[in-house]
Amino acid sequence: MDVCWNFLLSLFIIWTRPYGAVTQELKLEPMNSYVLRDSDVGFRAMVQGSWVIMTWFVKETQVLTVRAPAEVIPSSDLYSARICSTEGPNCVDFTMHNVTRDQAGPVTCNVQGPYKPQTAQLHVQESGTVSIPGGNVTAIQDQLVEFQCVTTSWFPVPSVSWSQNDHAVNSSLYNTSSTAEGEVFTSTSTLKIQAVSNTQVECIATLPALKTPKSSFVFMQIAPKPTDWTVLIAVVVSFGGCALLVLFVVGIIFCYRRRKEKMPIYQNEMKRVTTESQSSPRADEQRNGHVNPSYVPEDHTRVTPNLFLSVQNNLTKIGRVMKIQTENMDSNTISTASDSSTVKHRHATIV
Questions:
Q1: Is the bond into 156 cis (omega within 30 degrees of 0)?
Q2: Residue pLDDT, tens place only, 47-100
Q3: Residue 241: CB partners within 8 Å, gap ≥ 6?
Q4: How far apart are CA 204 and CA 176, in angstroms?
Q5: By percentage, how much of the chain surpasses pLDDT 90?
Q6: E strand or H helix at 6, and its extent?
Q7: Are 122 and 99 in contact (CB under 8 A)?
Q8: Which of 96, 231, 332, 339 is the most buried if burial means most Cβ atoms within 10 Å?
Q9: Which residue from 148, 151, 131, 135 is spatially nearest to 220, judged by alpha carbons?
Q10: DSSP-H helix ranges across the chain
């Protein structure tokens, strides 16, 4: 009886309602809903005017029916509906429980009568893990440090950003790439920053369905910059090279001068030897003895020029002494012959 009465009332409202206002009678909120897999999602339908039957469709499949004023006929435990507690009988809250990726798509509310159906879009997403491999970092002052952030098992590809000491990092300092692994995605983001001071570096991954983004952070500690010995080594090497060059030049000059000083001595010595050899006794005075400067003993294979000159000089001196002794002996013989009647002859052999 109540159903017939409500139906007749609905027909009366349709015939008495001005044309053109029908499309504004049914409102659906939200028109786009983002939800994580295995969670609940709700939609609200508000009807301006009286209604009798409301039906809900998920991807063109009818899943629930509501009869005014508050009778709900669900198709399974995955869906439920109730009359709004604050808006009155013209407002219905529709809830989907433990949603899956297969349920993503259009969700349609249809009110029987001259009401235009309203369709919302359901987006089912999945959040994975966020990590920065390697952990905390110790860097040298002014060093360019590279960080990597890996997000695993996300759908769709998450939005990845970086922060440094809770301040957003310029997007030009990092780049992100993603690869599909089955029905989910893995992303890798690389950040390069200069080590200036101790800082906290945080990688942030987010999806529209996430109320709070997921993140991972590490600490970067600055180590004292080591002493740069490059300049000192360069200076020492430069001065050392110059010093060696100067010593080399001085050594060449010294050797050149010593050689130049020895040349006149050698030439004078050769002149003296030549002069002494030219002033030696004539051939008729050396018939009894002759020095062979070219003689080499059998047990010697080589006579150096210095040894040859030394021997020659010694022999020349010995020849001079023996010559003087011979002259003295000759003079003594003559004086002895004049003093006595007996003439004595002494023969000296010079070897």
A1: yes
A2: 988 889 999 999 989 999 999 887 888 888 899 999 887 777 789 999 999 999
A3: none
A4: 12
A5: 46
A6: helix 2-16
A7: yes
A8: 96
A9: 135
A10: 2-16, 230-278, 305-339
Radius of gyration of the chain from Cα atoms?
Answer: 62
Helix 230-278 to helix 305-339 angle (10° resolution) is 30
- How crowded is residue 275: how many other Cβ atoms within 10 Å of its Cβ? 9
Determine the residue type at 207: L
User: In the block, which residue shows the tokens 């000491």?
Assistant: 165
Q: What is the DSSP letter of 227?
A: P
CA 68 to the chain's CA centroid: 71
Residues in the chain: 351
Amino acid of residue 15: W
Contacts for 40 with CB less than 8 Å, ≥ 6 apart:
95, 96, 97, 98, 99
The single residue listed with the structure tokens 């050392």 is: 240
Amino acid 120 reads A
Tokens of 240: 């050392």
| 291 φ/ψ angles, rounded to the nearest 5 degrees | -95, 125
Q: Is the pLDDT of residue 337 over 60?
A: no
pLDDT in tens, 243-294: 888 888 888 887 877 777 666 666 666 777 677 666 655 544 444 555 555 5
Q: How far apart are CA 96 and CA 107, in angstroms?
A: 10
